[in-house]
Design a protein that fits this description.
alpha+beta; DNA ligase i, domain 1; D-amino Acid Aminotransferase, Chain A, domain 1; OB fold (Dihydrolipoamide Acetyltransferase, E2P); 3 domains; 7-stranded mixed sheet; 7-stranded antiparallel sheet
């Protein structure tokens, strides 16, 4: 743990990419595989399932610190991060003991908390607090709260591991995908030479992500060099058929076993050694259904007959990453599409995301404008000679999304953010007119510049009406234009509607409260079936 804490301190002291990379390489070069494996897991954002709830941690902080509960709660509200709050309030231990290695701390003292009764779990955590100090105890708190973050990206960790292993970073990125346990054996395979791969059949490939197209498509050059497709509004997924087994992975690296049985059944017809990239869509009678229908399936690990009937889904394939057990990602898109046609010919129930036929760029704007009517988000543009890359690399894949919906709402509530934003009011609730009252319809926390956040924070403090814990109601005087991607009926909300991805578009200081939109205006945007 001491070595991991030293790495954290080195990473936290610099914003220079090269300095962070050097710190990571030094750590992985000089750390036993058992510890390095856990460090990789935490650094790339794979957290432990929460073993202790925040209420318990706050209560135990009161007991360990001897401070009154109200002071602990006020401190938490001010700091905004529970792990840091506990670190600041807990007394330093009388004598700092030698902390165990990272893998022993996690495997022998933290993970077993799940099986302990409440009193024993409390005693175990408080004993750890009494034996650890400084950065080591801070990191312990981060692991306990499940909010571990450090200023490095997964890409930078991948680069460091590639340098240690002496292999291409794309190979490391692939090895980090899928299901794996933080064991010494895993870390040794992770940094092994390219000829010594021995990975799970279920392992997906890293996803290639499109970049937003902000310019006119004419800027991309000759239309004949590009393929256009609809940008589907579903769950990005990889469908794998290897060793007579089927695996469905989300872009978030979640194995969605059993959640989409109709897709898994259709995949049984795929040739062994096939990996397809595509979209899981709510789908019926050859047409996409609203994303709200797909939401009924998200989170249901074993959907029942009624759910399967009410929310049918389909897999729309738009790329072939592996064919007959051979990696196709270095081949141009045109060749991968040919392989995709051959693969899908053997599988009933899997759909092909067809290309949009066009000869001139001028033909696409009219089609792109029809996106909402077609139930899609816009148009994808892919260079026909492009390989399947890793992550978001500009130039070969572009997403040309339809303009979002917008409305003008009134700020009525605000609360502090978390972490570095914990001292500022950055999370806002907005309302629209419903007769003579204002009804909340959306929450948003992004879209303002830092200067605007600072100015709005001062305004909120000066115009607070009431306080409800960390939340403040404010005078309904400020109007903001908000953007959002979709809208649906929702009986769970007072307004009767729910918005998808609301965010602040701009601060409308030119508008009075009376100029804000009404609830009836927003309900006109609901799909006909939900109106």
């Amino acid at each position: 743990m001491k070595r991991f804490a030293a790495l954290f301190d080195r990473l936290d002291r610099t914003t220079a990419t090269n300095a962070k990379l050097a710190a990571l390489v030094d750590y992985f070069d000089n750390t036993p595989p058992a510890d390095a494996a856990w460090a990789v897991r935490f650094l790339i954002g794979r957290r432990l399932k929460r073993l202790v709830n925040t209420r318990e941690l706050r209560e135990w902080t009161v007991a360990a610190s001897g401070l009154p509960a109200w002071l602990v709660e006020d401190s938490y509200e001010h700091v905004g991060d529970l792990a840091e709050t506990m670190h600041l309030l807990l007394p330093e231990p009388p004598a700092h003991e030698l902390s165990p290695p990272l893998h022993e701390l996690v495997a022998k003292q933290i993970q077993p908390l799940r099986q302990l009764d409440d009193d024993t779990r409390k005693d175990q955590v408080m004993a750890l607090w009494s034996r650890m100090a400084g950065t080591e105890r801070f990191l312990l708190n981060k692991i306990l709260t499940g909010g571990f973050r450090v200023g490095v990206s997964k890409r930078l960790v991948t680069r460091a591991l590639a340098e240690v292993a002496g292999v291409d970073s794309s190979l490391i990125a692939h090895r980090l995908m899928g299901r794996w346990q933080a064991t010494p054996e895993f870390f040794q395979r992770l940094v092994a030479p390219a000829s010594e791969e021995d990975f799970d059949l279920a392992t997906p490939y890293p996803f290639f992500l499109a970049s937003p197209l902000a310019e006119d498509p004419n800027s991309l050059g000759t239309p004949a060099n590009w393929q256009a497709e609809w940008k589907w509004d579903g769950i990005r997924a990889q469908l794998i058929r290897r060793g007579g087994q089927t695996f469905v992975w989300s872009r978030g690296e979640e194995l969605m076993e059993g959640r989409f049985p109709e897709v898994e059944a259709a995949a049984e017809g795929l040739p062994d050694g096939s990996v397809l990239d595509g979209e899981i869509m709510a789908w019926h009678a050859g047409q996409p259904l609203p994303f709200a229908v797909l939401q009924k399936r998200i989170g249901r690990k074993k959907p029942g007959p009624k759910t399967l009937k009410d929310a049918p889904v389909a897999f729309l394939a738009y790329d072939c990453l592996e064919h007959n057990g051979k990696d196709q990602r270095d081949r141009p898109l045109l060749e991968r599409m040919s392989a995709l046609d051959g693969v899908l010919a053997t599988a009933n129930g899997l759909l092909r995301s067809e290309a949009i036929k066009f000869n001139e760029w001028e033909a696409l704007p009219e089609l792109q404008a029809q996106s909402r009517e077609r139930g899609v988000e816009g148009i994808m543009l892919k260079r026909l000679d492009s390989p399947y890359q890793i992550g978001r690399k500009r130039g070969d894949w572009w997403k040309w999304k339809v303009e979002p919906y917008t409305f003008d709402g009134v700020l009525i509530y605000a609360q502090p953010g978390h972490g570095r934003r914990s001292g500022l009011f950055t999370d806002y609730t907005f309302a629209v007119h419903d007769g003579k009252q204002l009804v909340p319809v959306a929450k948003a926390y992004s879209g303002l510049t830092q200067a605007e956040i600072d100015r709005l924070d001062r305004w909120i403090r000066a115009h607070t009406l009431e306080r409800f814990g960390p939340v403040r109601s404010v005078e309904p005087l400020q109007v903001f234009e908000l953007a959002f991607e979709g809208i649906q009926a929702s009986p769970r909300h007072k307004s009767g509607i729910a918005m998808r991805f609301p965010r602040i578009h701009r601060w409308r200081e030119d508008l009075a409260v009376s100029d804000a939109d009404s609830l009836s205006d927003l309900k006109k945007l609901l799909p006909d079936s939900a109106a």
